[in-house]
Design a protein that fits this description.
The protein has 337 residues and is an alpha+beta fold. It folds into 3 domains: 69 residues, Uridine Diphospho-n-acetylenolpyruvylglucosamine Reductase, domain 2 (2-Layer Sandwich); 113 residues, Uridine Diphospho-n-acetylenolpyruvylglucosamine Reductase, domain 3; 103 residues, UDP-N-acetylenolpyruvoylglucosamine reductase, C-terminal domain (Uridine Diphospho-n-acetylenolpyruvylglucosamine Reductase, domain 1, Alpha-Beta Complex). It is 23% helix and 28% strand. It is built from 7 helices and 20 strands. A 5-stranded antiparallel β-sheet has the order 6-7-12-10-11. It starts with a strand and ends with a strand. 39% of the residues are buried.
């Protein structure tokens, strides 16, 4: 099955709900389909951009080229070892549906990543993480198609250059590969991560510490703090939590003794960006057609009819105030297209 559509409106393919037009839109269902499309003389010379659920992007203008959308949705158990399962999930699988299936089948490890929007194919690009868990710790390898050679390539874990909300696909290989499937090494026995206070408190309300209950707890927390894109168009966390040097942290703490923080190493400290933004008075702040969510200061929302420039203007205003107040430069987590 192949779908190639001209002058395609991407409003429903980005959670900010921005109206932009792509010259062409192509949805592939398997590798053969994708390779055939890439070799077509009508399209192989055009600029290309992969777009899954559009939950971590901001579309800044009409796209003069081809949007490639993964429509492959298989989940397969490939191998079993003494303590793990190797699970292959196609790029087009909804991420939270995948986590749900893992919990149902007792494939452990991803429970804390419940409720994160988007597709499986996008998840390793920014190494998604939440509540003490990072995706990189469960990825064995990633299957891609090289947009230049049109050949299948495999990237094993150590080749992916994973970092905090980062990977090789966000850096040197950005825009050069289409991720078609991700292979996960998931545990046979649960090793639940409940170190976050909010997680522990919510789990205590639900019942025993099981993977199923941990997933429920995570979903409850996210629902209480984060707006659903269907209600308030947004792209989740707009900024990364900054990681600063211990010496910088001590200077800031001397003036702000209550500052929340997480020790990353003996030389690095992570500061919640939401706290910094809230201290600068932006929680619930509204500016025209955009606003900062009133329950989670990391989230910028489209209140209706906003353009990318409106969102970026507000983001820049936030960055400027945080820099002036704390001397910390916030970094955008979302991708600009």
């Amino acid at each position: 099955m192949r779908r190639i559509i001209k002058k395609f409106n991407l409003k429903k393919f980005n959670t900010f709900g921005i109206e932009v037009i792509a010259d062409y839109f192509f949805a592939f269902t398997d590798i053969i389909d994708l390779k055939s499309f890439l070799k077509n003389d009508l399209y192989n010379h055009l600029d290309k951009q992969v777009l899954g659920g559009g939950s971590n992007i901001l579309l800044t203008k009409d796209f003069k080229g081809v949007i490639i959308h993964p429509f492959c949705k298989d989940i397969v158990k490939k191998k079993t070892t003494s303590n793990s399962y190797l699970i292959k999930a196609d790029a087009g699988v909804n991420w939270d549906s995948f986590v749900e299936k893992c919990v149902e089948n007792n494939w452990y490890g991803l429970e804390n990543l419940s409720g994160i929007p988007g597709k499986v194919g996008a998840a390793p690009i920014q190494n998604i993480g939440a509540y003490g868990v990072e995706l990189k710790d469960f990825i064995e390898k990633i299957e891609t198609i090289n947009l230049e050679t049109h050949e299948l390539e495999i990237f094993y874990h150590d080749q992916c250059n994973f970092g905090y909300r980062d990977s090789i696909f966000k850096q040197s290989l950005k825009g050069k590969h289409v991720i078609t499937a991700v292979y996960f090494s998931l545990l046979k026995e649960p090793n639940l991560v409940t170190s976050y206070k909010a997680v522990e408190e919510e789990l205590n309300k639900i019942g025993p510490a099981t993977a199923q209950n941990l997933r429920k707890a995570i979903l409850n927390i996210r629902e209480s703090k984060l707006p659903k894109p269907i209600d308030f168009p947004n792209a989740g966390s707009f900024f990364k939590n900054p990681i600063i040097s211990l010496s910088e942290f001590k200077k800031i703490k001397s003036k702000n003794p209550e500052i929340p923080h997480y020790i990353e190493s003996d030389k690095k400290v992570k500061i919640p960006a939401a706290w910094l933004i809230e201290q600068c008075g932006f929680k619930g702040y509204k500016n025209g057609k955009v606003a900062v969510h009133d329950k989670q200061a990391l989230v910028i929302i489209n209140t209706g009819g906003a353009k990318a420039k409106d969102i970026l203007n507000l983001a820049d205003k936030i960055c400027s105030k945080v820099k002036k107040t704390f001397g910390i430069q916030l970094e955008k987590e979302i991708n600009l297209i």
